[in-house]
Structures are given as structure tokens and as C-alpha cells.
Amino acid sequence: MTLNKNDSVLWLAHVAKEFFPAWQDRLNRSEKQTIKSLGHNFYSVQFSSTPTRGYLSESIFSRYWLPVQYMWPTKCEEKGYIEKCAQGLLAKFKDKNFGNVVVFSLDRKQQKLASNLRGRILQVFSAKLKEKSPTKLLTEWTKKPVLQPIYNQTLIVAISDKCTWAGLSTPSEAGSFFAGGRRYVGVSNESIASRAAAKFVEATESLQLSGIKTDNAKKWLELGAAPGGITHELIEKKCEVWAVDKADMDEDIVENPLVHFYKIDAREFKVRMTFDALMCDLNGPAFLSAKICSEKTSLLRKGGIIIHTLKIHSANEFEKDYELTLKEFALQNCQFLYARHLYNNKQEVTLFFKKK
Fold first, then answer.
1. Measuring CA to CA, which residue among 186, 306, 296 is closest to residue 236?
2. What φ, ψ does residue 294 adopt, rounded to 5°?
3. N or C: which end of the chain has fewer CB within 10 A?
4. Distance between CA 345 and CA 61 in Å, rounded?
5. Is residue 220 within 8 Å of residue 278, measured between CB atoms?
6. Of 52, 55, 62, 66, residue with least CA distance to 20
7. Tens of pLDDT along the chain (356 residues)?
8. From which residue to which does the signal peptide run (predicted)?
9. Domains of the chain, CATH where assigned
10. Is pTM beyond 0.85 here?
């Protein structure tokens, strides 16, 4: 096993392949980094110096970041390999402060190895983990990762068929509660399940990772609401929703007393009231969606959160559309928080703003 001498200079990143060129371009704006493909949308990035969290966030298309502090060849057929790995990790991290262990396979082919290795790591670190995290907590975090404290230091091990990497990180720093940034969302109502609902669930978790909670947002304006997947997620949280879309919505949702459906173009929505948050998933040209959504932020209370989906119709036009969108929201007195290409995003990026 080899100790990575430049602690937190080598990182693993998860990036959708279609956005790799844009991601690489953003990373190389200040200075060129050494990037190698590991397959399955994972890459290793060798920085010349330890990157800041803000710098990593600016890359936008990274779904997951893992600082590599230890790495070794994967030899799963070797006798005693799991024990050798566990003891090596104990020697490296025994004096480190962490309260959870996550092991995952980059290519999903090493799931059994990952499970067995995690079990042995938990055993060799049992005394340390008992001080930080009772067994009951570890079980809860395994079943429902979003219950982890966002700044909870975790020992993370990533396995591929050729190499295994390990490092310490937190859900907030990694950018996801879920191993490798792979967030599969089980929505509340399968009969109206939609990718939009999955995006919304992941978006609120992303805000949570940034220390921003939406629990107190009880009145939502939703633009581009049909067929109702996001609306259903909101009413499950006992939120009142003003849903706007030219298309039809699920009848059961429309009949819910918490839902006020306006079957109109979003530009025609004229209700004068104050909302706690705004969700926009409009289709159409990026500049038009940005203009419509940003203008509706006049209906938000101070501090209200905006979740805006920027549709990417052309990778070559992304930077132009992105800057135009930021400008439109700035004109409406909205503070840009950050942007992420969520696991459930496809040809789109989710932007987060706050009303000043």
C-alpha cells in the first residue's frame, strides 16, 4: 500500500461523461490539472496544491469529491486481502477523528468486496467508532444516509478493479450523503413518479448539505409543475403549493386542498401574495425560463429560496446561458448561492438562489 504524500492534493470526482469537457475546462481555468479517467464516470484529479471547497464547487459538474489520502492496488483474489486492507487502514487512520465508514464500488462489480471490507473495517475500528457513533446510529446512517450530520467526518473507501482509494471527508465536503454521489430517489407516489420529483428531493438535500434547511418553507410557488411529481413531494411535507403549468396535472393532486393549480402560461400568473420558496422547472430556451422565474421572485419573502433548473440545449452554449441566467437573477435582487449537476439531472443544471 502507498501513502499519498500530498495529502488532499489527489482527489476522486464523479462527473457525467457528456459534461466532462465543460468540467475539465472549468477545472483548468486557473492552472492545468492532471486528470485521468477511471471509468464509470469517475476521474482522478491531481492538483498542484490543495483546492478550496469554493474552487471545487465552481466546477459545477462534479457530483462527488473524495480527497485521496491512501491508495493501493485492488487484489481481491489474493488470500487475506480484506484483512490486509483493514489493517493498512487501521495503521493509517487510527489517530484520525471520524464517526462513520463508507465503502463503495466504482464499477458496481465489487459490491460484495465492498460490503465485506466495510464489515471488517468496522470491526478493527470498533473501539474508536463506539466513542463517536453507537451501533444504532451507524445502522440508521446505512439505511438512510441523509440522517448523517453534514459535517460528520467519514472514512470513505472507493474500489475499482485495478485500484482502491481511501480518504476522510464529510457529506458536505463530498457534495452528497450518498456513496459516490449516486442518489437514487424513491418518490412518494409511484403512480405519478417523475424525474422532476427525484431532482427536487435531491435539490433539497443539496441545500441541506450547504447548511440551508427548507423545513420552514410552507408556501411554494412552482413553475412548470405538470404532471405533479414535485407538487406531490411538497404536499407530503404539508406545504401549500401554487402550481403553474399549461399542461394538465394529476387529478388527485389538483383535488388536494393544499394545491392551487393555474393552467396558464407562467408569465400570466398574477396572484399577489408572498411565498417562502420558488421551484422552477420550466422547459424552453434558457434565457426565457430565467427571465420568467427571476421576475416571479418579486413574490418571495426576504431570504426565500429559489431552485431553478437551467436546461442545457447545447453544451457549446452552456457558459453563455449560465452567465445570462445569473445576470437575470442578480437584476431581481437575488443572491446566487451555487450550481450543481445533480445525479438526477440530465441535460440540465440546478441553480440555487436566495432573495435578498
1. 186
2. -60, -35
3. C
4. 10
5. yes
6. 62
7. 333 333 578 999 999 999 999 999 999 987 889 999 999 999 999 998 888 888 888 899 999 999 999 999 999 889 999 999 999 999 999 999 999 999 999 988 889 999 999 999 999 999 989 888 888 889 999 999 999 999 999 999 999 999 999 999 999 999 999 999 998 876 555 555 578 899 999 999 999 999 999 999 999 999 999 999 999 999 999 999 999 999 999 999 999 999 999 999 999 999 989 999 999 999 999 999 999 999 999 999 999 999 999 999 888 889 999 999 999 999 999 999 999 999 999 999 999 999 99
8. none
9. 10-169 (3.30.2130.30), 195-355 (3.40.50.150)
10. yes
Set of cell numbers at residue 218: 410552507
Quote the cell numbers at residue 43. 476521474
